[in-house]
Design goal:
Largest sheet: 9 strands, mixed
Oligomer: single chain
Number of domains: 1
CATH topology: Purple Acid Phosphatase, chain A, domain 2
CATH architecture: 4-Layer Sandwich
Distance between the termini: 26 Å
Length: 214
């Protein structure tokens, strides 16, 4: 199941695979967790004359992961779509038919489509957050006294300093004492550079590998 480049990480007694495609495979549950696809965002910018990546890359990567891991559920931690109805909804409907499994969306701040649209997709919706095993699954980082929080929303990245003035910004998985932030799965989402503390664990994402740097 684990591939070269995946990072095996035990958290709260559960075995997680941190994937270079910017998603987590929870091995015990067979859940594929990902956040912040922002489907339709690229098309919005292209309509205004900007040459940006297409959502097709996101679907290709997701298809690759589903074929390999055969998840029981694909669980989106918010911001599946960037705004209101767009052609990506039809694309996602076709994708879900081609890759039958259970799909669930924990609603994010950009997920403003009507519930009827999601019902047409056959997608389960969760508002706010949900607890699953030792984890609280949500979109925006939050405090929880009962569970370790897994969230998205921030699009985390870190800056690595090299010799001299060289530096490199990379997307990352960011694990704090009580909560973790997943990288944005979407190919056109940007980065928010975080400053890790001594006890934080940071795993940077290279093209085909996840590496721990803190």
């Amino acid at each position: 199941m684990k591939r070269i480049g995946d990072f095996a990480y035990n958290l709260c007694g559960e075995n997680l695979l941190l994937l270079p495609e910017k998603a987590i495979f929870w091995q015990e549950k067979r859940y594929l967790l990902l956040a912040d696809l922002h489907l339709g965002k690229a098309r919005h910018f292209r309509k205004n004359g900007f040459a940006v990546p297409d959502s097709e890359k996101n679907f290709q990567l997701l298809s690759k992961l589903i074929r390999h891991f055969q998840p029981e559920k694909v669980l989106f931690l918010g911001d599946l779509f960037h705004s209101d109805y767009n052609l990506a909804l039809d694309h996602l409907a076709a994708f879900m038919q081609q890759h039958p499994t259970h799909y669930e969306l924990v609603i994010g701040n950009h997920d403003i489509l009507s519930a009827e649209n999601y019902a047409r997709l056959g997608m389960q919706l969760t508002e706010g957050h949900r607890q699953e095993g030792p984890f609280c699954l949500c979109h925006e980082p939050m405090a929880s006294e009962k569970a370790y929080v897994l969230s998205g929303h921030i699009h985390p990245g870190v800056r690595l300093q090299g010799a001299g003035r060289q530096s490199l910004r990379l997307p990352c998985y960011f694990f704090g004492e009580k909560q973790a932030i997943l990288p944005a799965f979407g190919s056109f989402t940007g980065l928010h550079v975080l400053q890790p503390k001594a006890k934080d664990k940071v795993f940077v994402i290279l093209e085909n590998e996840v590496l721990q740097v803190n």
